[in-house]
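Convert to structure. Protein one:
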Amino acid sequence: MPQPEAPSLPVRIARWSVFESRHAGPSAGNPFVDVDFRAVFRHGNRRIPVTGFYDGEGVYVLRFMPDATGEWSYETSSDARELDGLCGSFVCVDAEKGVHGPVRLGKKFHFAYEDGTIYRPFGTTAYAWTSQEAELEEKTLATLAASPFNKMRMCVFPKHYDYNANEPPLYAFEPLSDASAPAVWTASDGAGNKLSGTAAFRWDFSRLNPAFFRHLEKRVAELGELGIEADLILFHPYDRWGFSDMGREADERYLGYLVARLAAYRNVWWSMANEYDLMPWKSMNDWDNLFRFLQSRDPHDHLRSIHNCRPFYDHGKPWITHCSVQHNDVSLATDWRKLYGKPVVIDECRYEGNLPRRWGNITGQEMTNRFWEGFARGTYVGHGETFLSPDDVIWWAKGGSLRGESVARIVFLRKILEEGPPAGLDTASLGSNAHAVSGVDGNYFLVFYGMAQPAYQTLSLPEGSFEVDIIDVWNMTVTPAPGLYSGECRIELPGTVLMALRITRRG
C-alpha cells in the first residue's frame, strides 16, 4: 500500500506529465463521502480547480497535468482541517522527447496533439482486457507494442457477454458488510431488453475500491508509454454486477472519482457508454446530465464521445467532441461529417473473425476494405478481432494475441498516410467514377475502389502535372503508373479488388 509522502514536492516535472502530491488525512467513517478535498493550481493569471481523491488508509491525493512550462503553485481546501490550506509549487520543464501532449480536435474533421502534431487514430477494441489475470494483460501489452494501433477502446467495468463470463480479479466497489440481502444485477440481452438476476453479494456504491483504480491507471499509463490513447468506456449494458444501473448519485460519485484519478494522464479519452441505447433504464436526460457532470469535473478537457448500437445520440451536442459510431456501412461516414461537423470515428464496423454472430465474422479482406474506405473519405475506422479460441481468450473481449489478416494491411495503410501530407485528408471529387476520394489542397488525392474491380478509370484532375501510384491494398504493393497526368485522363488498372490510387502534384 503506498504511504503518504512528506509535503516536499518535486522541483521539476515535464510538460504533460502527471504531477502528484500525497497527504495524510482522516480515515474514520467513510472518507469517500465524508471528506471534500480540492485544490487550485496557478500559473501566472491562470487558475485551474482540481478535485483530489481518497486512496485508502488515510491517504489523499492530488493529480495534475501541467500544460505550460514555468512555475506552478497550488493551495488546497478541505473540510478536514489537516488537508486544508496546504501549499506547494513546482517548475514545469519541456516535454520529454516524443511527447506531444493530449489529443485535441485539430483541423475541423481531424485530431492533433496539443503541440499541433497531427494524430490519426488507428484504433482497436479489447473491452475487458484490464479485468483479466496479470499474465494475459501483459501479453496484450506486448501485442499492442508490435501493432499499428495507437488507440484502445476499453471498459472501466468488467463485461458479461458471450465468451466473456469470468469474474475479474478486482471490483470497483466494496461489497456491503451485510450480504444477507440478495444481490440484484442488470444486463442487456443485446436487443435493448433489461435482464436481471441474483449474485453472491451486493455493493456499497459509496465505498470505492482504490486497488481496482490503481490497477486501471497502471494499465492506462503503460498504454501511454506505448503511445496509445486509452479510450475509456465509462458505462456499458453487458453487466451482471449492477454497475450500469447504480442511480444518479452513485454514477456521479464514480465518475468524479475516476476523473480525479485519471484526468492527469495525457492519453485518456472519455467514452460515456458503449451501446448507450441498450440501457433503457437511463434516459436521454440522464446521459446529458452525466456529460455535463463529467465536463465540469475534468480540469484537462479530454475528448468526449458516446457509442451507439442502433440510433445515434445527438453528436451535435456541445459536450461531444467527436462522433464514435457503430455501423457496418462505412460509405455513410461522409454524410455524418456533413451532419455533425465533427471528426467521425467508426469505432465498430464489425469484427474480423469466425464467431457465429454476424457482427463477428467478416473476413480480413472486408476489414481492410472498410479501413481504407473510411480513411479515403476523410474519416477514421477502428479494428476488432473475434476468432474463436478454446479458452475463450478473444481479442475483442480479453486481449491476448492477434490472429487476423487485416493487421498487416492496417500497418501498410498507416505507412501510406504517414508518407503523405501531414494534414488530415478532406473529401474531394475527381469525377463520378471514383468510389471514395479525399485530398489535400488540390495537390494530393487518395482514391479507393473497394470491392469493385475496374480495368481502367477516367478521372478529372486539376490542371497541372500529377504522378499516379497504383496501390494494391491487399498485397501491399505500390506501382507507379507511367508518365504524368492532368485534367481528363484515363488510368489503366489491374481489374482486381482492393485497389487504390495515390495522386501527387509534380508541377
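Protein two, convert as well:
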Amino acid sequence: LQIGPNQLEAMAEVAALVGHTPRTVKRFVNTYRVLKATADNLDRFDDVRHGVGDHQVVAFLLAAAVGPHKRAGAVSTALAAARSGDTLEAALANVHDAELRTWLFGHRAFAAAPVTRFVPWSAEVFRYSFWPPHRS
C-alpha cells in the first residue's frame, strides 16, 4: 500500500514520539502500512472526523507502541479505563510522561479529539507492541 500525503503528514506529526534509530523508524513505517491495510474502509482512512482521521489515530497510537519510552502499556491502560466522553488529553491525564504531555500540548487537534476515536484502533495497534492488549 502506498502512503499518501496526508499519511506522511500524520507520520511527521508524531515523529518526535517515535524515536530516531533507523530500526524503530522502519518498524513504525512498515507497521503503519500493515495497519492501514486492515482499515475497514480505505477510502475513508484519511477523512477527518471529530478532529482527527484514522491515519492520524493510527500514527499516534503506533508511535506510543514502538517509541523509545515504551509508553504502550501506560497508553493502552489509560485508553481502556477512559470514559466515552473523555478527550484524548483527559484519558491520558494520569500517564506520567513529560514528553507525551508536551507533545499533546503542542498538538491540540489530537488532545481535544474524543477518546472514542482512539479506542477502536488501540487493540489492533498495540498487537504490534510487546505490551498485551488491555481488555475492558
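The radius of gyration is 13 Å. The longest helix spans residues 22-37.
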